[in-house]
Write the structure tokens for this entry.
Amino acid sequence: MQNSSSTEGLNDDPNSRKGASIELPLPVQDSELFKHSATTYILNFLSDNPDINVSIRQLSKVVPLSERATREAVNVLEANTLVGTFHKGNARRVHINRDRLDNPSDPIRSIPQTEFQTPVRVACCYITEELEDVKGIILFGSVARGEADRQSDIDLWVLVGDNHMQQRHSANKLAKYLDGLQIPPTIAVADALDTDFETGWDEVKEILEADEEDWASAQRYSFEILVETPQSIINQSNRVDIEELFGEGITLSSSETLDRTKLEVLSSE
């Protein structure tokens, strides 16, 4: 890992903050596109989950509006070729138009406030190292929405394959450890944008855990790590804030298991 002697250029690079984007062909085919409040929620969810399709009813669960409002917004989005639909049985299924979607290969760059990108990246590396059989990681809450301040928790939801209680205990220990971890400014600023961060994780970790270092401008962050297995979240799906977790969340690590779990939770009554 190489630290930059100047971080100004990195911070000024617009590509360093580039999240997902979608191409809108002109002229706009349906001028109602910008009138629907549900549009943003639908595009955020479908672009975060480009490999799945959902029914209108499922989609309405991640939209803080009615099923009718969701359907009307989908009609306009389809007219503008931003989403596609097809019928399966009696259900109309919706998916993002991947030809219009430009998703960053590094989902952490989709985090709106760049100052939180490195602590999230560090946490993800520790999670995959310390927990077993990680099937997916989702960032949710104020950091995912871009509304966080320095007192905000970094909320991470982790799907694991098995051993729910043991993994939850390990996650709680890890969160406490991360709470006390000092992140030096050279990593917090420069290396957040280094695409080789994970490749050089051993060196990054050594720097973070160096007791002899005195980081004058080090920062601590507060972490909340929630752990579920597919079965545990399905069993309590009626208590899950689907809108906050899946609708507003940013999927940092995914798998077929996570996609299936999302669909099952969205299908629950």
Q: What stands out?
A: Residues 94 and 151 are 38 Å apart (CA to CA). The chain has twelve helices and nine strands. The beta strands are 21-22, 54-55, 83-88, 91-96, 101-102, 134-140, 153-160, 222-228, 250-253.
